[in-house]
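tool=predict chain=A
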Amino acid sequence: MSYKERAKHQREIEILKVASDLMYERGFTNFNMDELAEAVGVSKPTLYQHFASKDELLVRVILQGHEEIEALFDAPLTGTALERIETVMRMLLQRRHVAKGGMMNFGLVFPILKASALFNEQQTRLRNRLYALVEMAKQNGEMVSSLPTPLVVSAMFVLQGAMAEHHMPERVNWTEEETAQMAEHVIQLYLRGITPRS
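tool=predict ok
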């Protein structure tokens, strides 16, 4: 990359980091491009040279978080398949609920994400890799082999929503520690449902 391209890339990384912080702190509906431009120290037209819209920024913030999960699959294999599934679930819960006090309203942002070809491509890759991991866990006897693989993976994502504020209104007053503890309970609930009973 040329110096100019490197500088542009670095600025986009900075914009994404600040945008992520603001979205998680304030929620997507309360996030605006004016405040982002001010926080990053650029003009609004400069901001729009990097990202065409608030929706595009949202998609890139979410994709960036999922890239961490994809990197887990690319890392050398350590632990059992079930341990890797647990790690993925913990990362998802961390991103959605524990980090920075809570995820933005997922019901509101999901239609924006589903309209993105990049998001859908990444979701398909992630799903296929999780399917392979589930199949490995079944072959190793770590998981109930009769459970349909798509159901096992879908349940992982559905349980992420169990801690949403519209399901648990009292969640609004939870401390970060209480949120992390509840996330661990969700993981245990999931693991008990998919592992063989001894």
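DSSP finds nine helices and no strands in the chain. The two ends are 56 Å apart (CA to CA).
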